[in-house]
Amino acid sequence: MRLHHRVVHGYRRAYRIAGEGPAILLIHGIGDSSATWAEVIPGLARRHTVIAPDLLGHGASDKPRADYSVAAYANGMRDLLGVLGIERATLVGHSLGGGVAMQFAYQFPERTDRLILVSAGGVGRDVNPVLRAVSLPGADLMLSTLRLPGMRLQAGLFARLMRLLDTDLGQDASELFKLVDALPDATSRSAFIRTLRAVVDWRGQVVTMLDRCYLTEGMPTMLMWGSRDSVVPVGHAHGAHAAMPGSRLEIFEGAGHFPFHADPVRFLSLVEDFMATTRPADWSRERWRELLRDGLPVAEGPAGFGVSPDVERDLREASERSAT
Predict the structure, then answer these.
(1) 227-247 pLDDT, tens per residue?
(2) Half-sphere exposure of 48 (CA within 13 A, CB side)
(3) Which of 38, 67, 95, 58 lies closest to 223 in space, CA to CA?
(4) Measured at the alpha carbon of residue 186, what is the angle toward residues 81 and 174, in degrees to the nearest 5?
(5) Distance separating alpha carbons of residues 37 and 20, to the nearest angstrom
(6) How far is Cα of residue 323 from the mean position of the Cα atoms in its chain?
(7) Which residues are catalytic?
(8) Pick the CATH number of 3-125+206-321 from 3.40.50.1820, 3.40.30.10, 2.60.120.10, 3.40.50.1970
(9) Can you give the pTM of this predicted structure?
(10) Sheet holding 4-8, edge to edge
């Protein structure tokens, strides 16, 4: 699982690749890297070609002053697959990577076999208050302060306290502090902040895919979420499940924002079963045109989207957010 590198559009992209068979693209979350998938890559590679990139601005990839929007990341994933000679793939996206996976499926449905969204961003507005704070001015100073030896010790004590108190944040605190450790210099911190501000502001998530989730009709989709996710609430899983026709929902009881770390055996089993029991999406230009023309399903009556009240609320909120 050693890192490989390719230069695309003048920037060095790092990625891991293993196995043979139908392609699976693993897309990590904000501040993370391809190393986050280390426990599940070997199992997936037994029957599949697994590609796990470091997103631009993350890990061992270059960190330019660039466009870090979900649309730009989706384009980057398409171009990396093109360089590697891979036409279609099943997309597995975690957190921000889930938003990128949904965006990829929207922009390039003809290249998407299936969607597996893990604690994905881009559904509701709610997000951990710490991420809202990091989107504010002065975030670079705050992140650099957290790397000071004394602050790191206090942060570790705080993480252990949250876990002892059995809070949801306690499930994720140690993982989140590891992300801070992965930002060793000003360039890394700048790329992290630019990425975060593309999807989060002081009010919460600013990008949504709810208004076009109906386009996943006919595309096999599975959602995985930790019941105690402190970053992206599990309620978003139920909202996305209701908005995505025919989707499958799997909740990891007691897990936080990283269910594939909490229970990698179950995660691997679910992915393998999903791959074995579904057929790749059969995309056609005519069907895509029909879905676009029909638009979002509307319930009978003067108002309503034909979905649950919580999803309807999120859809109405979406009018204030960026539907990229």
Answers:
(1) 999 899 999 999 899 888 899
(2) 23
(3) 95
(4) 75
(5) 17
(6) 16
(7) 95, 229, 257
(8) 3.40.50.1820
(9) 0.85
(10) 4-8, 11-18, 49-53, 23-27, 89-94, 112-118, 221-226, 248-252
4's CB contacts (< 8 A; 6+ apart) are 14, 15, 16, 17
Amino acid at 187: T
Helical (H) or strand (E) element with 116: strand 112-118
Asked if 240 contacts 318 with a C-beta cutoff of 8 angstroms, the reply is no
Strand-pair category, 11-18 with 4-8: antiparallel
Decide if 51 contacts 25 (C-beta within 8 A).
Answer: yes
Report the C-alpha gap between 236 and 241 in whole angstroms.
8
Q: Residue 127's CB: how many other CB atoms inside 10 A? A: 23
Q: Is 252 helix (H, G, I), strand (E, B) or coil?
A: strand
pLDDT beneath 50, residues of the chain = 158, 161, 165, 170, 299-305, 319
- The answer for residues whose C-beta is within 8 angstroms of residue 281's C-beta and 6 or more apart is 109, 112, 113, 114, 218, 219, 220
Kind of pairing between the strands at 248-252 and 11-18 = unpaired
pLDDT attached to residue 230: 86
Q: Spell out the domain ranges in the chain.
A: 3-125+206-321, 129-201
- How many alpha carbons fall within 13 Å on the CB side of residue 94? 26
